[in-house]
Amino acid sequence: MEQNKFHAIGRIARRKDGIAKVTGREVYSSDVTLPHLLFARVLRSPIPHARIKSINTREAEKMGAVCITSEDTPDIKYNERQVSIPEKTYRDRVVLPDKVRHVGEGFAAVAAKTESLAEKAMRSIEVEYEKLPAIFDPYEAMRSGSPQLYDEICLGDTKLPIESNIACHREVGEGDVEHGFKEADLVVEKEFRTGRVYHAQMETKSVVCRPEPDGGISVWPTTQSIHNTRQLLGRIFSISLNKLNVHRVPIGGSFGSSIQMNTCIPICVALALKAQKPVKLVLSREEDMYDHCKYPVIIQLKYGVKKDGTITAGELKTIVDIGGHNIQAYPLLGCMAGWFVSLYRMPHLQFDGTAVYTNKAPGCAMQGYGNPQVSFAVESMIDIIAEELGMDPIALRLKNYVGLGETFWGQGPTVRSVIRSCGVEEMLLKGKDMIEWDQRVSPDKKTGRYRKGVGVARGFHTSGTGAPTPGEVIDYSTAMVKVNEDGSADFSTALMCHGGGTLEAGAKIVAEELGIPIDKVGISPADTRSTGYDVCTHATRGIYCGGASIQRAAKEAKAKLLKFASRLLDVNPEALKIQPREESDQGHIFLPGSLEKHIPVGEVAKMAQYKGWGTAIGVASHRQVNCPPCFVTNFIEVEVDTYTGEIKTTRAVAAVDCGTPINPDLAAGQLEGGLCRGIGLALLESTDYDPETGRLTCGGTFIDYKFYTPVDMPPVDKVKTFFADTYESSGPFGAKGVGEAANNATAAAVVNAIYNAIGIRFAEAPVTPERVLKALQNQPDVEK
Amino acid sequence: MMTYSIETNVNGRPRAAEVTARDTLLDVLRDHWDVFEVKNGCEQGDCGVCTVILSGKAVNACLTLAVQANGKDVVTAKGIGSPKEPHLLQTKFVEHGAIQCGFCTPGMLTSAKVLLDQNPKANRQEIREAIAGNLCRCTGYKKIVDAIEAAAAKPES
Ligand code: FES
Ligand code: FES
User: Fold this and answer.
1) Ligand 1 pocket test, candidate residues B28, B31, B50, B103, most atoms within 8 A of CB
2) From residue A500, how far is each of A8, A250, A741, A748, B102 by CA, in Å?
3) Domain over B3-79 is classified CATH 2.40.37.10
4) What is the CATH code of the structural domain delimited by B80-153?
5) A350: CA distance to ligand 2 center in Å?
6) pLDDT in tens, B36-95
7) CA–CA dist B125, A710 (Å, integer)
8) What is the least distance, in Å, from the CA of B46 to any CA of chain A?
């Protein structure tokens, strides 16, 4: 196979940003500093639902602070998430509102010479609130007569009335489910719930802005999309895009929390424009916890199956509690339908999703965009069905999974394509051996205080959102590659690395395509002025979509390079090849079979410069027309302490089918990180609200919002990862994505393992010790 | 408000500042001295990204009062090694893929450095305990423990 010939792809190389990161040289948004910088603080609501009757900023101004309220900011409705076409974008917020809809929502802001002065100025602001009744439960919110968060919002530019706090609703169906259920020998039905997990990216959201003399502004934000940030700022503040420059800054973790233009960004811009000085705004941990969370879901799932395990019909109904703002729950619901439909074949299917406003911090994408939640339900249910039918859970999965040659619609009903690479079977069978599945015994054979169990779950994520025809979601990337006069090369793109190695992969793609060493490829700094549009580094699209544009740009640069070389060597350019040569530490262009006809890449670039032929440069703006699934499989062993209800994960096997792994070491790291967060979703994490005060019960701190530390993350020593051996012909050098897939199967594998340990099926995550103990009490046959 | 003069040595360089009794070492490092490799993740002692070495001990800069650092040496990730001459720990972090976003890395490294200074042959369990106060949301910790283990002296077998 072609993939064996790679010199750069799949090589383990020291990541280019590594030395900067370990020696403290990496500059994140929160580290950006400028002369005459002012520091900003945002005044946030202590109550969950209120109209701001009056704000008095006189004292703050006396202290020398610059203050802004809703009166100083444009009354333009926006949705911070900009990856959908405008007609499908629900706009419900403004820069600073006069009505707050959750505790922690900002409605005024100040900037001053020091942080402590800004804090003092902010505290001096007098506010009169008109308290409104608040609502925290999505079912109550939908009841008639419940307090309403909105009367109307905008869908694109059109006014859209909101009723019963329903932010949006989506139904998708195929075939006739009722008929499908009638055909079944067994119909199973169950409700599942997942928690309101906080992203807990280690860097809180931050931004620095500088007004420019031409009336424009420069921005250094935490973001996954510099171009969408620029476009949205341009729309809100009516600034021409050529005067708005958004810089790509390394990000201290994101997990989806900065797909949107973070709300602190326009606040900081408004302050900087008013002050006419640079302003920095860094959220505190508490503010960050009130800013975003994973979408919590309630799922009612129903399957019909034949005795032999064939699924005849499936129905998934979901209620998503999106909190106080709609950060694009409409595509979320479409994707949830897609995740459901693309896991297992169903001749008849129905999806019904409703997103509901409540007075809590808004939900947004977090690693998987509804996928870990749907997989939690579906993969739990597959185990339930297997038990009812007396089938092996792996056999049942192998019988029904959507695989090679079949159509899947990962990113929702408008994004359908055919699967051309699939490692599902390989991962299930190899993982089964690695975890010693055959040693697994049923829960009734287990005794004693500590009981172990092994569970499996599958999952997938799409590599980007591309489809044969452009749909609701925008998806393309732009890249530029140029060959330098010493044989090195640079590439620039607005893609973002969240830490997983997206830009590393880009460098390897350039090295491979140009036939030069990885070391000789430079990653250019990026801002919106110097790069073409890239939608966003989200949806596991970095390598598959972004990488494809980089590969195309490199091919174009290479074609020019070979044309120059062909003139110098006097041969046909098509006959030439490039390969890296160790002795000269650069690529060599040669005519295979000839000893004389060869020349170093740098020589060609230099000669082309002397002779005035130009630079070997390539630019590509490219949309992938597919979004192949990167499949994952997790096998997890847990140990349940039946005295305390505590659950430890003791062993794990995490496998991914990402096509060609471009950075195998970094991809394995993503699997480990995803596993850790997936276990957190299953056992530990949720932000809960006190319905009396509307505040987080964890107080917005890491003391009471726990996620795994190095000590209590048990699979640190007992986690094995592997890659399925597949090749995705539509991806750069056979690659698909990894990112989000890494955690999509985990929570389900954990609850399946718990069932195997103690025979209790948990359908609500997180499975906390309290829930375990309570369930054990109701199950007296689990003797201790 | 009453202020105090403090003098410290940050990575071998003398530094001075006028601070209040309430200012933390983290405030002074980042706001007065632009020592930005010491990160701020919570300001409450819960995440460890602000870990520095204060006279040989790993401390959370956000829980240390600036006045407590008076007359002491502070070492940060920048002081452990430089791009030209990285410390073995730093090299191993890069080689083992122990960094993703890198925001926890300076704190992890300072905790690890203190551990290996005191216990050069630390085993995996000891490593995990030494970095117990350093949260990382990206990696799942395995590669971080691998990297520190690779930098530790091998136990005699
Ligand atoms: S910032 Fe000091 S422990 Fe989090
Ligand atoms: S590498 Fe991102 S928090 Fe540790």
Assistant:
1) B50
2) 17, 12, 13, 24, 10
3) no
4) 1.10.150.120
5) 40
6) 999 999 999 999 999 999 999 999 999 999 999 999 999 999 999 999 999 999 999 999
7) 10
8) 6
Provide the pLDDT confidence category of residue B153 given band limits of 50, 70 and 90: confident
Question: How far does the centroid of ligand 1 lie from the alpha carbon of residue A41, in Å?
Answer: 20
Say if residue A3's pLDDT is above 80. Answer: no
Domains and CATH numbers, chain A: 2-26+476-622 (3.30.365.10), 32-132+202-253+258-289 (3.90.1170.50), 297-468+626-777 (3.30.365.10)
DSSP codes, A464-479 = SS--SS--SB---EEE
Question: CB contact, 8 Å: B85 with chain A?
Answer: no
Inter-residue contact B102 to A250 (CB < 8 Å): yes
Contact A13, B68 (CB under 8 A): no
Distant-in-sequence, close-in-space partners of A35: CB < 8 Å, separation ≥ 6: A278
Residue keyed to tokens 């408008």: A414
Query: How high is the pLDDT of residue A1?
Result: 40
Other C-beta atoms lying within 10 Å of the C-beta of residue A104:
23
CATH 1.10.150.120 segments of chain B: 80-153
Helices (H), A76-215: 115-124, 138-142, 177-183
Q: Is A673 helix (H, G, I), strand (E, B) or coil?
A: helix
CA angle A85, A86, A91 (to 5 degrees): 130
Q: Does B126 touch chain A if contact means CB atoms closer than 8 Å?
A: no
A699–chain B Cβ distance below 8 A for any pair: no
Ligand nearest to the CA of B59: 1
Residue A731 region, left (φ>0) first, then alpha (ψ -120 to 50), else beta? Answer: beta
Percent of residues, chain A, with pLDDT higher than 90: 95
**Which atom of ligand 2 approaches the CA of B101 most closely?**
2
Q: What is the pLDDT of residues A71-110, one digit of tens each?
A: 999 999 999 999 999 999 999 999 999 999 999 999 999 9
Chain B residues in contact with A716 (beta carbon < 8 A): 124, 128, 140-142, 145
Burial class (CB in 10 A: 0-12, 13-18, 19+), A266: buried
Q: What are the tens digits of pLDDT across the range B15-33?
A: 999 999 999 999 999 999 9
| Across A686-711, average pLDDT | 95
- CA A288, A290, A295, A299 torsion: positive or negative? positive
Instruction: Please give the interface size between A and B, counted as residue pairs whose CB atoms are below 8 Å apart.
Output: 185
Instruction: Give, for B138, the enclosing helix (H) or strand (E).
Output: none
CA torsion sign for A156, A157, A161, A165 is: positive
A556 is written with which tokens? 């174009």
C-beta B47 within 6 A of ligand 1: yes
A245 near A178, Cβ under 8 Å?
no
- Mind listing the pLDDT tens digit for each residue in A634-651? 999 999 999 999 999 999
Of the candidates A759, A377, A669, A525, the residue with the CA atom closest to the CA atom of residue B145: A669
